[in-house]
Design a protein that fits this description.
Radius of gyration: 22 Å
Largest sheet: 6 strands, mixed
CATH superfamily of the largest domain: Bacterial extracellular solute-binding protein, family 7
CATH architecture of the largest domain: 3-Layer(aba) Sandwich
CATH topology of the largest domain: D-Maltodextrin-Binding Protein, domain 2
Shape: globular
CATH class of the largest domain: Alpha Beta
Number of domains: 2
């Protein structure tokens, strides 16, 4: 007969009893959750399991969740917050850049060219978070649960590409106003195109280049239309997760704490995954190294030109930041200067 140490049995009993007690104490709740882009490893390995397994387990079964990424619902991403505000679901996640055309504050955390590393964008997001929370509560009637990012957002191009000056005359799929301003600084044209249409757009020559995460582009098979991968990070696709305010207020304090605690853990897990996946994405797109995600492609990896580091900063200072400041307004710019501006060592001027 198998025997177990008394200490282990006691620990297991306490865990089971604690979960049962929590379930009895916490009112039952069912949440309809719309997740971020479902083809990504971030969604499949972290976001979906957190909602469908982590939250129910942490609540002792009191909270049940239905989860579906926005792309699997036939959405393009930009509609998520509007539909969330209307109460069509309880929780929604989307890329903030998709919303920048409606309100420039959505670009504040992750302006193209502002943060130059995954660590810097974490600091920028944390610094601006109180202002984003206040905006969403007042203007969208939703409670911000958390803010995350993807990995480095880089250029995939069909034809030979050697650096930022080669953007001139090219049509580039972008995912926000600041990316469009960045591309246009170099003489290119920023094209708004749903993520699901990009692969075909690259294959058919409708667009010349597109910007996304290194592994995300591989998972979407952008290598079937693009040949060149430029390693320079432009930004990091900051994303927001929010809860309909009425849905949030209906939850017990205990349930709210479960969601908050689970999302804090998710934010940390996503950061760690982003750090790992930049190099995995390079290996999968180029065949230089082991690709654990499938058969490697054979894209040409273009190393970052030192001069482009300065050009990225110039594009930010001379085009991206002034245009964003004009769109966002004086109060918004002050909040940015007091938060993100200190992280990236820049000062924006409203209306400039």
């Amino acid at each position: 007969m198998t025997t177990f140490p008394i200490r282990s049995l006691l620990a297991a009993s306490c865990l089971a009893f604690g979960g049962a007690a929590l379930a009895q104490a916490m009112p039952k709740a069912t949440l309809n959750v719309v997740g971020n882009l479902g083809i990504t490893t971030q969604s499949k390995e972290l976001e979906a399991p957190m909602w469908t397994q982590g939250v129910p387990a942490a609540s002792g079964g009191a909270i049940t969740v239905t989860f579906k990424p926005w792309n699997e619902m036939g959405l393009k991403g930009g509609e998520v917050i509007k539909l969330l505000r209307q109460g069509l679901f309880d929780v929604g996640t989307t890329v903030l850049g998709f919303l920048a055309g409606e309100a420039a504050i959505n670009d504040a955390l992750d302006l193209a060219g502002a943060s130059t590393s995954i660590d810097m964008v974490q600091d920028a997001m944390a610094a601006f978070r109180p202002h984003l929370d206040a905006y969403y509560a007042k203007n969208q009637q939703v409670k911000v649960l958390g803010v995350t990012s993807y990995g480095d957002q880089v250029l995939y191009c069909r034809k030979e590409f050697n650096g930022l000056s080669d953007l001139k005359g090219r049509k580039v799929r972008v995912s926000g106003s600041s990316q469009a301003d960045f591309v246009e600084y170099f003489g290119g044209s920023g094209i708004n195109m749903p993520f699901g249409d990009v692969q075909q757009g690259l294959q058919n020559g409708v667009i010349d280049c597109a910007i996304t995460g290194i592994l995300g582009g591989y998972k979407a098979k952008w290598y079937e239309g693009a040949t060149y991968l430029y390693r320079l990070p432009i930004n990091f696709a900051a994303s927001v997760t929010a809860v309909n305010m009425k849905s949030w207020n209906k939850l017990s304090p205990e349930a709210q704490k479960v969601l908050t605690d689970q999302y804090r853990k998710l934010e940390k897990d996503i950061y760690a995954q982003n750090v790992r996946e930049n190099e995995i994405g390079i290996a999968c797109n180029t065949g230089k190294g082991s690709c654990p995600e499938g058969a490697a492609a054979s894209m040409v990896l273009v190393d970052v030109k030192p001069a482009d580091l300065e050009l990225r900063r110039k594009a930010l200072e001379e085009r991206v930041l002034p245009r964003w400041a004009a769109r966002c307004g004086e109060a918004c710019v002050k909040d940015w200067n007091d938060s993100v501006g200190k992280v990236v060592n820049l000062k924006a001027v409203a209306g400039k």
